[in-house]
Design brief:
Strand 3 (81-88), helix 4 (91-98) and strand 4 (105-109) form a beta-alpha-beta unit. The termini are far apart. The protein has two domains: 8-56, Helicase, Ruva Protein, domain 3; 77-209, Dna Topoisomerase Vi A Subunit, Chain: A, domain 2. The chain has helices at 8-17, 25-37, 40-56, 91-98, 128-135, 150-162, 189-197, 204-209, and strands spanning 58-59, 66-67, 81-88, 105-109, 141-144, 170-173, 200-201. The chain has eight helices and seven strands, in the order H-H-H-E-E-E-H-E-H-E-H-E-H-E-H. The strands form two sheets. It has a five-stranded mixed beta sheet. A two-stranded antiparallel sheet has the order 1-2. The protein is α/β, with parallel strands linked by helices.
Length: 210
């Protein structure tokens, strides 16, 4: 049975914070009580920072990474290799790969994975915009850096089929240093970095399964 509080202000704050992922009501209560002990200016600054983030953050028009402008710093960086695009599930995966310092190309954030069980189809994620980027030319390699899960493999295969009309574009995937069933964001930086450097042709996965 959930604990209820006599103060509606306390109840509302705990209920709001407990909606965050990984935070239950007990943890939310501890956070609320902690904030009540802080200076009002500090708590106000925290609230304003969250509101400003929600109102002003946007997504890059090119790769769909989070950005403060129409084009993110990675896409607008002239030192990046624009001929290589690494396809990831979400923004956290971009951060994970960037932390390896082993990749210097661009990204494409899908915003999810194909998952019929969860009602997520190809039209619900940013696959069409990826195909359009390839169609425009200038890309020589697509790196499929999706989690080694059933949903990740399904999405990999769908993208591979969609890009079949562009035979000059090499499609590679992370080396299987990333264990089957693992998600990118939970893979250590050393393993992830080596998987990027030792990436293999996606088409080779079909040969291995035969």
């Amino acid at each position: 049975m959930e604990q209820e509080f006599e103060s509606s202000l306390l109840e509302n704050a705990v209920s709001a914070i407990s909606q965050l992922p990984g935070i239950g009501r007990k943890t939310a209560l501890r956070l609320v009580l902690h904030m009540l002990k802080q200076n009002e200016a500090d708590v106000t600054a925290l609230g304003e920072a969250i509101i400003k983030l929600r109102r002003e953050i946007r997504y890059c028009n090119v790769c769909h990474n989070i950005s403060e402008s129409e084009v993110c710093p990675i896409c607008s960086n002239p030192s990046r290799d624009t001929s290589t695009v690494c396809v990831v599930e979400n923004v956290k995966d971009v951060m994970s790969i960037e932390n390896t310092h082993q990749y210097h190309g661009l990204y494409h954030v899908l915003g999810g994975l194909i998952s019929p069980m969860n009602g997520v189809g190809p039209q619900d994620i940013e696959i069409d915009s990826l195909v359009e980027r390839v169609k425009q030319g200038g890309i020589s390699e697509i790196i499929l850096a999706l989690s080694a899960t059933m949903e990740g493999d399904t999405t990999n295969f769908y993208i591979f089929r969609r890009l079949a009309p562009y035979p000059d574009v090499k499609i590679t995937m992370l080396a299987r240093g990333v264990s089957v069933g693992n998600e990118i964001e939970y893979t250590d930086e050393l393993t992830l970095g080596r998987s990027i450097l030792n990436r293999t042709l996606f088409s080779d996965t079909f040969k291995e399964s035969q």
